[in-house]
Specification:
By secondary structure, the chain is an alpha+beta fold. It is built from six helices and eight strands. It is globular. The mean pLDDT is 94.
Length: 203
């Protein structure tokens, strides 16, 4: 099967991962508006003069087009996190995919505060990792988390992902160069733990 942004649906036990499309704008805007304070402290600042993707349909359409182009080029795979009633509750992205000797992607995720603490994010991460290793053929996934972001750290702790240390002033977040704790999993680790992870979170 050819994996494209338009035909990819990844199933967990309680969630569905699929690319976000223009028809999702109203749902996406409602979630982002509701979670403004919950999310923006962990995200880069919007560039001055840049259209607000939360409020502008055109900016959201451009975002969707950019994500679709990443799929075509094989440089990124972005997913909305949906629960089975169709509600959009977050996103998880495999970004900055690098091939050659690295075969790596960076993972980022966010969840609607109203659904936090229910295990949806670790479930989504296992589903995305399965896709990354078994369908995309990557060797390594990396996740970088601000040390004080306890909610994001609980996700990787629930899955027992390997910690690799602290990267100083790693990313500019909300206008500040923030240290990040780096976590990773390789395809060898996935192969060793696939049964455990999928039986707990997918099957």
């Amino acid at each position: 099967m050819t994996w494209t942004a338009t035909n990819t649906r990844l199933l967990g036990r309680r969630i569905v991962l699929r690319p976000i499309e223009l028809r999702d704008f109203d749902k996406w805007r409602e979630v982002r508006r509701h979670n403004m304070d919950w999310l923006t402290r962990w995200e880069p600042k919007r560039i001055p003069g840049q259209a607000d993707v939360v409020e502008s349909n055109d900016a959201f359409a451009a975002r969707c087009s950019a994500r679709a182009r990443e799929w075509q080029l094989g440089t990124g795979y972005g997913f909305g996190i949906f629960i089975h009633d169709g509600s959009l509750i977050g996103e998880i992205n495999l970004s900055s995919v690098q091939r050659g000797p690295f075969q790596n992607a960076y993972v980022g995720y966010w969840i609607d505060e109203r659904h936090a603490g229910n295990g949806y994010t670790p479930e989504s991460l296992v589903v995305a990792a399965k896709y990354a290793f078994e369908d995309v053929g990557l060797h390594r996934l990396q996740i970088a988390i601000i040390p004080r972001n306890g909610a994001s750290r609980r996700v990787v702790e629930k899955l027992g992902l390997r910690e690799e240390g602290v990267a100083l002033r790693y990313l500019e977040i909300n206008g500040v160069w923030e240290d990040h704790v780096r976590f990773a999993i390789t395809s060898e680790e996935w192969d060793a733990r696939r049964g455990e992870l999928t039986s707990r979170w997918i099957d």
